[in-house]
Automatic annotation (TrEMBL):
SUPFAM superfamilies: L28p-like. The gene is rpmB. InterPro entries: Bacterial_rp_bL28, Ribosomal_bL28, Ribosomal_bL28/bL31-like_sf, Ribosomal_bL28_bact-type, Ribosomal_bL28_sf. GO terms for molecular function: structural constituent of ribosome. It comes from the Bacteria. GO terms for biological process: translation. The keyword Disulfide bond does not apply. Belongs to the bacterial ribosomal protein bL28 family. Keywords: Ribonucleoprotein, Ribosomal protein. This is Large ribosomal subunit protein bL28.
């Protein structure tokens, strides 16, 4: 059986990497509303072998009203569910 533990220090380190990815113009896994991004942690086995792993937010490409005009943005499903996004039809 595998257990998972999220290590916060490693997660901070990963945010730095994703910032560099934005500057490079590559699409990244980040919510446009709440800035939720990729989290890094470890997979910890019973024999205590540590393997690095990542968690990605569930992002959806939606048409929303941003500053009065419709725009396609990447939003996490939690923001969609809680009604933080004003959808454009
Ligand atoms: Zn969000």
């Amino acid at each position: 059986m595998w257990y998972t533990i999220q290590v916060s220090e490693i997660a901070m380190y990963f945010y730095d990497i994703s910032d560099r990815v934005i500057k490079g113009g590559v699409t990244m896994a980040k919510c446009a509303i709440c800035d939720k991004g990729v989290t890094v942690g470890i997979k910890l086995s019973h024999s205590h072998i540590r393997t690095k792993r990542t968690w990605h937010p569930n992002l959806q490409r939606v048409k929303a009203i941003v500053d009065g005009s419709p725009k396609r943005i990447m939003v996490c499903t939690r923001c969609l569910r809680s009604g933080k996004v004003q959808r454009a039809i």
